[in-house]
Amino acid sequence: MKGRILTIAVAVSMMLAAAWAADVTGKWVATAPGGQGQGESTITLVFQAAGEKLTGTLDNSAMPGAVAIEEGKIDGDTLSFSLKRVIGEQAMKVVWKGKVAGDEIRFTRGIEGGMGGPGGDEIIARRAK
Predict the structure, then answer these.
(1) Following CA atoms 75, 21, 107, 102 in sequence, which dihedral angle do they give, to the nearest 10 degrees?
(2) Nearby residues of 24 by Cβ (< 8 Å), 6 or more positions away
(3) How far apart are the C-alpha atoms of 57 and 39, rounded to whole Å?
(4) Rg from Cα positions in the chain
């Protein structure tokens, strides 16, 4: 009997955790400072969330072409993902971490292992309406 109650309690806890995950599915738009004093760029993020898994694309007006996000995770109101960029001949991994508050996500982003490191820039994305 105790085993059955424990099993039910664990199952309910898992369902509640999934229900409390922020709903980020959809299109989000942000502006970010352009590199080397080139003004601002528009960033369009399109997310698909399924439980704790986050997939989607990021399109930056300064670097044309949508890029698939990788390693996407959602944990409550926080999310993270990475993407690969190649500038010149150098490949780099850009890490994004964000906190959802209603129709806004406050992100920090940085290049893993250098040039500002994770958490280098703050970017605010807003849900597209």
Answers:
(1) -160
(2) 47, 49, 54, 74, 79, 100, 105
(3) 23
(4) 17
Looking up tokens 């920090």 gives: 108
The CA-based angle 110-113-115, given to 5 degrees, is 55
Q: What is the model's pLDDT at position 121?
A: 78
pLDDT digits (tens, 9 = 90+) for 30-68: 988 766 666 788 999 999 999 999 999 999 877 768 999
Which of 57, 58, 35, 54 lies closest to 120 in space, CA to CA? 35
Please report the domains of the chain, with CATH numbers, ordered by start residue. Answer: 22-127 (2.40.128.120)
pTM above 0.85, yes or no: no
